[in-house]
Amino acid sequence: MTGKAQNFSKYVKRLIEEDMNRGPISEIKIDRNEPIIHEEETYSIETKEAMNSFI
Question: What pLDDT tens digit does each residue of the chain (55 aa) get?
């Protein structure tokens, strides 16, 4: 393992630990009486091709 990978791993672990120690910052409030609106998203051909490579 290289020094960079090890440093990155420690960095990510530290970020996760700090986030977990911070606790929930905000709560999501949902109004169950409000309808859910699904909006179609438009993507460029390049973006669609890039996304398809992950499927």
Answer: 556 777 899 999 999 898 888 877 667 777 788 777 777 778 888 888 887 776 5
For the whole model, what pTM was predicted?
0.36
Token pair, residue 20, equals 């977990």
Distance between CA 9 and CA 2 in Å, rounded?
A: 11
Phi and psi at residue 37, in whole multiples of 5°?
-110, 120
Element (H, E) at 9: helix 3-22
Residue type, 41: E
Find tokens 């090890």 and name the residue.
6
